[in-house]
Amino acid sequence: MVARSILAVFNGYDHELSGLNTAIALAKASGGHVRVLHVNSIAQSYAGIFGEASVAGMGWEEEIERQNEARLANARKMTEAVAEREGLTLDATATEGPSLFFVSLRNAYNRTLLRELSLVDLIVTSSEKGVGDILSQSVTDLALFSSRRPVLVVRPSDNDAPATVTGAPAVVAWNDSPEAMHALVNAAPLLGEASRVHLVTTEKGSGTEVPEDQKLALAYLAAHGIEAMLHVVDTDGRQAGEAVLAKASELSAGYVVMGAYGHSVLRESLVGGFSEYMLGESDLPLLLSH
User: Fold this and answer.
1) What is the domain class of 170-289 according to CATH?
2) Quick one: fold of 5-160?
C-alpha cells in the first residue's frame, strides 16, 4: 500500500505545481489524503540572517508581512484551481480519499509545524536545481532532519505534470549507512508498487563475494515481496552521485531512493558530497530519508 497521508509543501510558486500535482496523483492512486502546507515567515526569522537592526530599521517587518499575505492568497488561489481541475472539494472533511486540505502556518519553527511534518506517510516538495528561497529550504530541512518522514523532492516539469512515481522503475542508491537503511525501509511501500527495483552501489566486495549489507538489503526487500537487482557501479574517477545518476538513466528509473546527509550539511556544502551532488544535479525525483 502506498502513502495514504501525504503532505505537500506549497508556497505558491509556479515551479512548485509539479510537486503539488505529484502529491495529488499519489493520493488518487492510494485513495489517500493530501494536506497542502503553506508556511509564512515572521520578521524575526529574517533577523537571524540579516540582523535585527536591519530588519527593524529598514521597515522590513511591514514589507515581509505584505509579502506574506500576498503569498498566502496566491497559494490558496492556486490550490483552489488545482482542486477544481482534479474534481476535488478543497477542505471538505472526508474519511475516504482522495481529498485535499489547505493548511497555513505562520511560524516556521514551532511544535505545530513539526507535528504537521511528522504525522504523515510522505512529504512532497518541489525544488529547482540549485535555487530555492530561504523559507522553503528551512521547512524542507526541518522535514528531513526532524520529522523522520521520507521527503520526495520533485523537479518542475513541462505543463506542471506530476512526476511518474507509482509503478515506475526505481533505483535505490545503496551504501552501508544508517541513512541508506532508513531510506530503504521508508521507501518499501512505494517500492512495492515499482515495475522494477534496482539496488545500485559503488561499493565493491572483496573478490566475487557480495558484501553482507547488500545481501541484507536484498533480503529485506524480498521479505516484502520485492525482487530487486543488484548493480555494482564503477565510478571511473567520477563522483559517486554522478555514477549513480548515469546508471539510473541507463535503467530508465522514474525516481531515486537515497539516504541524505550521512555527513553534516556544512561538510557536504564545503567539500562536496553525495547528497549535495544529487540535490544539485538530479533531474529525477529523489526520495530522501535521514
Assistant:
1) alpha beta
2) Rossmann fold (3.40.50)
